[in-house]
Write a structure and sequence with these properties.
By secondary structure, the protein is α+β, with helices and mostly antiparallel strands. Helices cover 26% and strands 26% of the residues. Strands 1, 3, 5, 8, 10, 11, 12, 14 and 15 form a 9-stranded antiparallel beta sheet that branches. Strands 2-4-9-6-7 form a 5-stranded antiparallel beta sheet, with no helix packed on it.
Amino acid sequence: MTSPSTLPVPVTFWSRAGLTLQDPGLAQPAPGKAGKLVFEPDGRFYAGRLEPKSAGTLTLDLVSPRPLRVWLAGVLVLDEPLFWRSYERELRLAVVFPCQAGPLEMRVEVGLRPRHPEHIDRDCPSRNRDHVMAEAARRHPDELGLTATLHPKATAPAVSLRFLAAQFVRNGITWQHILARPVRACQDAPSTWLRSTDEEQLPALVLSSSVLPRDGEERTNETERAAGLRRFFVPVAEPNDEPAPVRDLGLDARVEPSIEIARTLTLTVEGPAGAVALPLPAFESLGKLAPQREFRQVAWPAAEQLRAGVPEPVLPPAWQPFEKLYYATWDMLLAIVKHPDPCSGLSNDYISTGAGFVHHQFVWDTSFTAMATAYAWRAMSPYTTINLLYTRQFDGGYIHREHDVRDGSPALYEPDFSPNPPIMTIAEWQMARLTGNVLRLRQVYPALKANHAWLQYNRRLPDGTYWTTGLANGLDNSPSMGDGYPDLTAQMAHEADVLASIATVLGLTEDAKVFRREHAAIGRALNKKLWSESMRIYSTSLPGGGHNPNKVVTAFWPLWAGIVPPDRVEALAGHLKDPKSFWRHHPIPSLAADSPHFKPEGNYWLGSTWAPTNYAAIRGFERAGRHDLAVEATARHVQCMLEVFNETGYIWENYCSEASTRGNWSGRNYCWSALGPIALLLEELLGLEADALANTLRWNPPADQTSGVRRFPLGPATVNVMQTHSAAGTAIDVDTDRSFTLELTRRGEARRIACAIGRTHVEL
């Protein structure tokens, strides 16, 4: 029913090929459909007419899948771009425009419909892309939707509004972003009193919602103000009034990560002369399972404080030069700390991705970085950066691979969902084994379990393996395409294994049983479907049978998941040590050197050596019992990184596998490259494995070498362990301020040593 204070306004559109803004044919409308403008494939300009029956204020609600400009009565009232990476694929807009009775001419200009670049289809194909593109076109038809409403006798500011899905939570209230662009010279003639338009004062404007009337606020930065934009925040949910989830756990009818409208509220637009009300789309809120949603300031240590607060490695003589890179890496991590706007929706300051990605944060980059920075948990919070990921989780469990840190929005790059490798769980488990923080596991378990469920529902194939894409799995342009992927399949098995361990710690016995069964089932499927007997390696399955002939570094990932039979471990070890394949100058290249697609200079994932995949492979060989290979690969990896650092002064996103130089497509100061100089140095070269949840430190020190670590943070205990070797023999000395158990491995044999407060000395 029409409100007595508002009236619907008839709208007629017609299209004229080649119409220009001076086209006299505007006065002679052709038949058209009211309220909807279907765009012509090559059309750019269109014309229409609105017919308000009396004076007042006109409000237009518009939805467009293309960038849009709109003129009313010759006045430009809308000028909105639509970035090709916009995850929403459409503009949701409103216009407030004072008008007189009688026909009101309308002109529309549109740009091209946004589309991903062609190289994505060429280099990063997806088995699901044709379906996604067809469904996206169906859900977002190539037309302008318009509803016009007249508010008789009302006088309100002339303004256009862009409704953004960006939100943040403050004091329990959810606030949503709106961009406003005042419409200049709507009624008056051009001014004779301004030297330039820069001197013009933006008109007074207040936006507020029906959730908390009159509680909207303006927060326009200098860049936006210079562009004639104003940013407002309006409340869309009170603490006890959040809309119900828009989708169930794991189930997802979307084809892309669009943020859906959860409900429609009322927006009031008010100026000095009056106000009007119009519909306000309130989008679904992200991060409902996050351990922290509201922004908090983080205290970061100075560089010297951080150096003094992290473990101090004591390395054998051959590896002592690595100490320089170890501390330089901590300095690099501090140097890329960013401080987001508190209204971005992000939870706190964070360690950014790197110099090449100023505005974007990725899931697996962030998770791997947390595995390295966890060793500094006494000096700085280990959770700050990974907390960002939980705030970006959709209803149903999905977490997009990449987010724009300026407003927290998902960044669409390939058409489809792009779930990065699900290794947040592994990162949380490694942090817990250093900190002993069971409460943190309890806080994040629901979110981790939900993301795992989404992948089960949406990425599992009938044969029990999992599919992904070159962008979703982070390998971008790698020739790893096919159906079932060894990496995501192994990652899901690994995550199930770790979720079972977390559930056990939390006392969730039934959950633990379910996840252990899943770990075993995925392992069986991977070994049955993704092992190429002819190549003796794991490889992506092909739709017509057989396997992708390219040997990709993710073939080693099943080792880390603990699902590789012993005979296949040896086969994989053979591939690793083959100098024609993966054992290059800087092992382990992302693509084997004997692949026809291999590029010696790197070309990103066509041959560069990468920290995360090296870490996964090395830790995999460690788990499979090949500590010797893990140490040898680590030493080669860190040595090459050090040589590049000595030459350039930087730690790089990826490295050339053929020489000690950076990869040719590589950004400097990259977060996850901390894995080698920090995590692998401590875990493999020094052989340390923390298990604060069991009050145990496992140590497999270099044989017959003086080595150890000082200030190791094992839960509440601060531990110094040192192995000294001389002609007289080998001894272990332990200093600790809390009792713990040292599980010492020496020449393949394990020995448990109870270490009381103070010093423990053991002759070996």
